[in-house]
């Protein structure tokens, strides 16, 4: 549904807020307060007569420092409150103000209102409450009911700590607002003009004109009017806000109504799209079902073809395996032949590399010898050159030394002449410097004197110009003051204009009041007519909408009942029998058990087959590895045997074949016995070994040498030789032990080092054929052992491979059988589950549908009956609805009358406003003329003495200028002095330049002498150096001659070695070529065998891969067939879900391609998406639209009522503004008159007046004070002295107080800024004001004020922090004193 319920709830809340304002209550508020036009007969229209009351007593308990209850009797006359600072005098005044309704804690000198409660001292506990009581007499008619007629009132304010404050009048609780209004009606209150607290005078002095207007408002008693106007304005703003909210809500509801209309149209479209979507889905499902059947048939055919392919690939794989085995068996022979050829090739290559290295070494030796000979020849030529250069340098340096000696002899005379010239230049420079200083001093004194003269002349001229400018300015001001002076005729004309404006204003006010009354009556008639018309229209619309809604509801109820009845019958027919459902579930359970057993058997078979396959793979790998190992070992052993046989000489076996050498000792034994290892033990051989007994005694080897007989296993023929050969760790030990060897003994090291008893030796690493043959013999024995072990491992691996191959074939057969069994079991289980699921879903759907439709059908029958009944009721109400046309005609007539009355009222208001503006303009013009006249007269009087003083100053300035001119005439000319100084400076510069040139010449000669001496010493050193170099070069030349001859002999000897090494290398190259040809032939045979092995292995791999791919293709075909079956079942399930169990599918189209399916799917999805894109559809749109329209009608009625209330409130506010202006104008004239009289009385003369400034509206204008004390000019309050400002402010305060007397007046230290004479005047004024009945409370420190009081209250603080009162009646005290003296 498009309509958001939260939005409707918010709109309802807003509507309820707009309806919270009761228009009738808003209209009655100003009337109840006596300010509405209807209440004009009550007597509240004009300024009310001030009510009076008498404050007789003030009782304080627990307030600030007054811990105990204290009573202050407020008697007629002047009551003074005195005491030292900080004792609590001001607390008495604050208690009075607090009881009158003060609500600001800061005005009570506290942070919060609980601070007025006595807080306690070190010896006295604090209190939890404070209370102040005021006793009023003659107060009938002041208090609200039920005390409205009581003459004596006790007004009590009490505050409890943490619980707030409250008011009581004669013991009955009342509002603080009522108490404040009560005191405002008698001209008093917490902030009234009669409560002159500390700082009130200074605040009035420093206040802005707009802030001083509050003084007039207090005097006019408009505080109540202002409060009532403020309350009315608040209600007006609230009503206007509610009207705005109502307009917003109406706009929102109208938007909802339009939205509901759209929702009704959407519901119809939704139903159409639902039918089209179902048809498209049925067509799509029919196509899917046909495609599923075709896919299932294709999948079964593909499965049969895959099984045939699997059998063919299995046979091909077996043939490839046999071929690969044959190729593996033929590979070891070529590998062994190639290994032997490669070994021989490597040996010849090593031999060739050794011969090539020997040739390179021989050639390098020859090159080094030739290079050394060339270097020695070059060094010999260089030595000869150095000898020649040394002799040449010695001759040149000796000649230069002679020249230096001559120059040094001539230098002393030249230096002495230069010193004489320098002394003369220095004397001349000092003389010129003295002359320049004297000329500069003279020029400076002349310039200073000239500057002093210029400064004095400029100062005199500036003074003369200033005096002239000031005189001109004063003349101009005097002319302006004379021009600004006002004539008496202008003042008279301004007064007459003000009188005419007052008369015109009175006439305009009367006209406006009449127009306003007529407009109010027309507004009432118009509101009543609108209300009646709105009620008639609303009633008519409600009846019409109710009839329409009821008809629609009846139609929908009938349609819904028929539809539900049909669905109920269909659901009853679709129920599934219980025995059929039970049989399907039993079949499903049996198929599940069979599938589980087949799955377990298949898992076991697959595990067995995997294990057999893994065992077969391991056996084949082991067989291949064993065959390869045997072939490598046989080939290497064969090559080593052939190599050893090729190295043997003669027919007898060498003794080497009988020696067993541990690994690592081959080089040591080869170095020790050398060629003797190749000799046989046969005595018939030309050279042989013969067995001899051990030596007796046998010589001992040196300490640290181990006999080889202990390490090597050898025949007896070698025992004596090996016992006398010792093994040492390294070369250093061998060299150290060699001198200690006995005849016939020798030492060897593991790296081939050899040291014999007679001094013969061999360095480590020297080539030894015997050692190489020993290594080859050890390798041959190791390879023969490895070959035998590989033969045994190959036989074992072949047996294991045959057994694994048989086990793998058996496991494969078992796996295929169990797989087929599992497939059949799963197919049976799938069919059983599908049937059971289909039957369960159909049964559940039918039962759910039936259980849901039964109560819905019953409710539909009830709703149908109710809708028909409501339809009859709505039609009857529509016929009985009132006539709205007549009500609308009456409303239009009332609106026109109101519009006419409003225009007349506006014209009268404009006329009154113009009259008020004219009066204010006239009054302002009169005040401005008077002020301007006074200011002009004062300014003229002040300018005359100033002009006279300036004339005298001008004459003095002219005389001073003439004196300066006379003094400057005798000063010297500064220009001549400057020229003389300049000439002296030029001469000084010339002298200093000559001095500098002479000093530079002498310095140059001194430097030249030092340079020549230094050069002579350097020449001596160079001569000695060249002599030494010549001697060294001669000796080296002799040495190089001998070395050159020796190097020539060495180069001739080394020239024969390279040819010999080249011949040996050529022979080795021929042998290497023969071996390489044999190796190439063996490598070709091996390559052919390996190629056959690789091709057969690749063919086997491809065959295995093809077999595996065929099996996988068969598995995929099997899975595709299963998926096709599942797809068919899924299509059936989708048809069941989307179209129901008894859906009839249309005939499938001929085109069953993917494109056709895609088109059908897109069509169905497009229709479904269009339906979904509509979003939520509100099926109750018509009912909700009727509700919204009903709310609109009610809201329109509320708007009419609120508009009427707004009109009433605006009229009330206008009436309050008129009354406030009238009161302020009357009070302003009275206060101005009283202020003028009091000012003259307090100052003993002078004049002053008040003026309204800043605005033409008296309600917004500021109050400015103009005063002219005796002997001074007229000015504003801010331009007076401090005492004058205080007396002027007091004059205004008392003037306001006299215009609106209060029962009590409080003066808190107002005499502090006054001197004694002004204090006397103030006290005299207070005594005169007491004659009017006002009672004064005066807080003071001034002795003269205390003396003029009728009674005194002394405030003491005997206990720190606690105030007490002591009273003295001075009149009674004087009487007692006089009676005592009599």
Automatic annotation (TrEMBL):
One Pfam assignment: SMC_N
Gene Ontology annotations of biological process type: chromosome condensation; chromosome segregation; DNA replication; sister chromatid cohesion
Region called Disordered, residue ranges: 1-50, 543-569, 758-844, 1138-1170
SMC hinge domain mapped to chain residues: 649-738
Residues engaged in binding ATP: 84-91
Coiled-coil residues: 222-309, 578-615, 947-1029, 1065-1092
SMART domains linked: SMC_hinge
Domain of life: Bacteria
Key words of the record: ATP-binding, Coiled coil, Cytoplasm, DNA-binding, Nucleotide-binding
A molecular function GO annotation: ATP hydrolysis activity
Subcellular location(s) of the protein: Cytoplasm
GO CC terms of this entry: chromosome; cytoplasm
InterPro entries in the record: P-loop_NTPase, RecF/RecN/SMC_N, SMC, SMC_hinge, SMC_prok
Chain intervals with Acidic residues compositional bias: 1144-1155
Composition bias type Basic and acidic residues, residue spans: 781-790, 821-836, 1156-1170
Function: Required for chromosome condensation and partitioning.
Subunit field text: Homodimer.
Family: Belongs to the SMC family.
The protein, known as: Chromosome partition protein Smc
